Every structure is written in structure tokens, then in C-alpha cells.
Amino acid sequence: MSNGTTQEKPLNELLSRSMVDLYVGPSNTHWILHEKLLCHHSPFFRRTFYKKDSKASDQKTFGLPDEEDHPFKTLVGWLYSSSLPVPREEADLSMLFDLYLMAEKFDMAALVADVLQVVREWYKYSDTYPGLRRVQYVYANTEEGSPMRHMLVHSVARLMVLEKGIPAHWDKALRKNGQLAVDIIKAIQDWKLDEESVPDARDDPAEAEELVDVEAELADVEEGGEGEGEEEEVEEEAEKGEGESEAEGEVEDDSEDTVVDSPMQPNHPEPTKDAKKKNTGEGMISGFKKMAFNSVPNGITNGDYGTLH
């Protein structure tokens, strides 16, 4: 099954008499393995057991307290059988991802290739894509250039292109993990798509117009123009009214009496004859006329009251 770069040798040639003792996990599970077989597949263990120092080379015991028992057991099974368990459901991939990380740590290229093939085939034949948790886990524990990371990000890129929208959890993750977003873009670039198959928004203005209601925008502009015209007319009338009030104030010294009381207030004193005459407009200078409330430009109606300026 192995497609790695390690040159294959018959198993019988790798089952030497020399053995090594490995203690794995927090429980120090003891494994006794053939030294030649282990070192053949792992440069990491070759550096550990084949040191130039003669005293160190006699040491055949090594501890791996940070490793998990289950994936290491699968690693041992692969060493002696060159086979891996086939996942039956997505949950079974957890152990395979842990095994993959272990294989990268021990520089076991053949095991890396085999695990990658099993995971890829599971997604292919189950017609599914890697979930966000899987991708984040691999990204957190691998370096740039990792084959598993490459496979996952290319799968996600295809998912994003084919989906109508980006799922909310992916959207949130991509905003936080800029490197993942960049890698997805690079993955799409790696496809070397034919230029004719890639939509060009510059050649299709109708596509942009769908995002903007042009008719509504034009209507708003027209309404805005009419509104400005009305405001100008109101301002002109207001200025005219102010001019008339100032002229009236220059002629009559008692212009401050133009305070209009509320029509609802009772017990007002009886106005004098002069006041009545003034209120009827008879005492106003020729050419001026009294303005009705409904003609005041600021919108005051007959029901409003206050000081007119």
C-alpha cells in the first residue's frame, strides 16, 4: 500500500535480532519492536538509535510520553503489515489524523502517504468534504507544505466554489484565520483555470446592475431636486416676511405688541379702540397687509401660537 519515498525491503530482511524498547503515552505502554524495521521507516528513530557516540548507540530504550496509545498501536500494525484500518464513519478519521501527525513527527514518509490516501478516499467515496474542526486541527499541528494540509485546503476551496454561499461558521473562521483564506485563494490559482471559464464582471454590466436598483436611485435624485426647490421657495418667503417685519418695526414703535395669546386663554382685558384698529390693519402703512397664519412660511397654522418674528 505504501507509496512513500522509502525504498521497500522484504519484511524478513528487516526483522533483525536487535530489538528496541519504547514506552508510549502517559501510562508508559511498553512496546518491543525490531530496531532495523523501525529505523528503516523512520529517520527520527535512526537519529535516536544510530548515533555516532558508541555509548549512546548501545541505549535501546526510548520514551514517547506525549504520544497517544491508539494511533501508536496503529503505527505498529502498519510497520508489520503495511496496511491501515478503513474508516467506516467520519468519527473514525480522528485516529487517522492523529496517526498522520505522528507520522510527520517521526519522518515516516511512507506512512504519511498511506494515511493521506485513506483519508482522501474516504471523503471521495462518501461524497463529503472536510469539516472546519478537521481543517483547524491539521492547521494547528502541521507546517506549511504539509501534504495533508494541502489536500484539505484544496478540498475546501472546491467546496467554496461550488456552494452558493459561505456557511456562517466558515465565514467566521476565515475572518480570524487569514492564512487559511490565503491558502484557499492559492488553491484556486493552482487549478490553472481556462480564462474563458472564469466570469469577467467587466464584460457583463448587467450583473452589477442587479445589485443596484438604478430606477430607484434616479427617482431619489429627482425627488431630492424637487425638495431643494421647495426649500429655496420657503427660504425666499421667510426672508420676505422678515423684511416686512423690520419695515413695520421702523415705522411703529409699539411693534413689540405683536404677541399672540392662545385662543384658549380666558379673561383677557377688552382691547382698546386703538388696538382694535391696529389689529384690523387699518392703521398699517399703505402697501402692507396683515399676514394670515396660514400664509406664514414656517408652517404655523391657526392652532399654533407664539411670538412671530
From TrEMBL:
Region: Disordered, residue numbers = 216-283, 290-309
- What is one Pfam family matched by this protein? BTB
Acidic residues bias spans: 216-259
Which SUPFAM superfamilies does the record associate with it? Answer: POZ domain
What's the domain of life for this entry? Eukaryota
Q: Which CDD domains match?
A: BTB_POZ_ZBTB_KLHL-like
- Which InterPro entries does the UniProt entry name for this protein? BTB/POZ_dom (IPR000210), SKP1/BTB/POZ_sf (IPR011333)
Compositional bias of kind Basic and acidic residues: 270-280
* PROSITE patterns named among the record's database cross-references: BTB
Q: Any idea where the BTB domain is?
A: 18-88
Q: What is this protein called?
A: BTB domain-containing protein
Organism, by scientific name, is: Lentithecium fluviatile CBS 122367
